[in-house]
Amino acid sequence: MKSNHIQHLLEINLAMLFIATSGALGRYVQLPVPVAIGARAVLAFIALFLYCKWKGFSLKIERKDTLVIFLSGVLMGVHWVAYFYALKLSNVAIGMLSIFTYPVITALLEPILLKTKFQLVHLLLAFLVLAGMYFLSPSLDFENSYTIAIGFGVFSALAYALRNILMKRKVSKYNGSMLMTYQTAIVGVLLFPFLFSVTSNTLLGQWEVLVALAVLTTAIGHTLFLMTFKHFNITTVSILSSVQPVYGILLGAIFLSEIPKGTTILGGILILSSVVIESVRSKKST
């Protein structure tokens, strides 16, 4: 049981490393946000569809699950678009750390929506994350792009929390790659018209970063992340995944030379300390 727990923790860290590439890649891509997300979703759908066909995964879903999967796809698209706006308006550190209000939101919503037992410790950890958020932007000036970016980040976090809660009861029933195939298809269809707002040469000029976003971040990272839902409750997963900004900030420092300020680091420490606490807690409960 102990070795399995360690393996599951390693799996979620690997998933977070892949997803964390979205920070540097999102800052690097020079396209309007809906275009970047639309192209990312279409390319990810192609990669995931081919992978499912190669592995022989069934793409059939029961009619009663159609609405939930559709809504989760819409929420995933909202999460991605809002997150990329947060990145565009700030930097990798602010953009990534701001969406990690989603453990707070998840801790409050999961007992209500999934009828799970409310745990006071999750609420305390959520407030620890909020304290960290204060140090990211201690001045609530809505003319400041960083404050607006944090607003987009929190909105992205709400969509992400709702999507994860919706998916919790489906990951035991359907393959993770199959679920991500549908979600990327939904996002791709909804944002496909935006692809015509730029020239084909503009899109082709960004093909490397778009493919990286589609394959590394989306097809691999988010599929691995969905699979971890089988081993932890959603609040635990959300708190454990708060290690993602560490990887993202490191990638941003290496590839974009974005070194976070002292207050950003302090806020990040408060947010990420919840990861260590929840890692120990979840280990004891297995």
Automatic annotation (TrEMBL):
It comes from Maribacter litoralis. It comes from the Bacteria. Keywords: Membrane, Transmembrane, Transmembrane helix. GO terms for cellular component: membrane. The chain crosses the membrane at residues 12-29, 35-54, 66-86, 92-113, 120-140, 146-166, 178-197, 209-229, 236-256, 262-280. InterPro entries: EamA_dom, EmrE-like. The keyword Membrane applies. Residues 14-136, 148-277 form the EamA domain. This is Threonine/homoserine efflux transporter RhtA.
